[in-house]
Amino acid sequence: MHFEPTLEFAREMDHNDPLKAFRQQFYIPQINGKKAIYLCGNSLGLQPKSLEGFLKQELNDWKNLGVEGHVHAQNPWMYYHHSFAGPLSRLVGAHEKEVSAMNALTVNLHILLASFYRPAGKKVKILVEAQLFPSDYFVALSQIEQYLRLSGRHDFVAEDAILQIYPRKREYFVRNEDVIRFIDQHQDELALVLLGAVNYYNGQWFDMESITKAGHKAKAIVGFDLAHAIGNVPMQLHDWEVDFATWCSYKYLNSGPGGPSGIFVHESHLNNPDTPQLKGWWGHEETTRFNMELNFIPAHGADRWQMSNVSVLSLAAHKAALTITDQASLTALREKSIKLTAYLEYLIDLWTADYLHIITPRNPDKRGCQLSLLTQGNGKQLFDTITANGVIADWRNPNVIRIAPTPLYNSFEDVFQFAAFIKDALT
Question: What is the model's pTM?
């Protein structure tokens, strides 16, 4: 790709951007009375302007119908989650029956591991990546602890059953061949592979297909946390035969702080009577749910893992945001993302290479729209300086600035201005 380090070039790229109109569908935060350069979509996406209308519809139906809104609202609440099957399946590459909008990410991870972490004999260990999001580690640890309590086993401690794979010395992300080799080496003791599809810290996008194949060859279940992947990178979970996955919706899906999660479960597990699950009334078969009988009949598809009725107001915000993402299409978003991130990479290398080191993979096929910048010296001071100048980014201890030029609402001019601020702050 040809780039130039000028404001004129950035504006020309924006002028020719087929997705440029989508920026106008979001509220851009302000700092000191001016629009911020918002580069923190990997932490919290921006608010869609359409959200109020979606919420008002449900609030008015609640006001005017009360409990009757469950069946007579414009979007009947009883079936509200059905409308998410299409857009979510397109985002993760799944059949509609394999996805469901429900709960929150860590809750869903516990629910899914209750089904898919099946330790037996020597095969009790869970593989995770180094520098994984702490919540994933806590879930894995507590599931292992629960198994130890119930089984009465005392031949190992829970922490020893979590296998972390680290990058090689003086490297910042794990090579795919090392993951495959590690799985093969530990196949006799490995029960589950659980990775963040895109690592939150360094932005690495794992080769999910080859890792899934390696996990299955080792007779292990393979699942992914898609918090930083969904809406960011293209996936084909069904074709890759991933066993399960879950995600949040408040990052690249722009569904609001604490927005709803969702799950994917491969169809091979959906009607398998040997697949255990935690049961709740909303996971009961829909047509007979309100018979209130005590024999549990699983709902169709991934909906069987739902336990409680959905939060309609939260899902309304989710629906507003997903409508925009679906209109833009992940294919077009990914095309812009590759260019936008590459332009940021180009400017950082050109202007600040002596001070900032990119620890995200250089290969666009191994990253999304995030670049993690390793700072030298007073990194936090630099971060505070650019924040004071109207940049909203993300600091991660001890010395990393995470930048996410999000294709739905970020521009090439945003990227140029950010890099220029960094350059000026360092000279």
Answer: 0.96
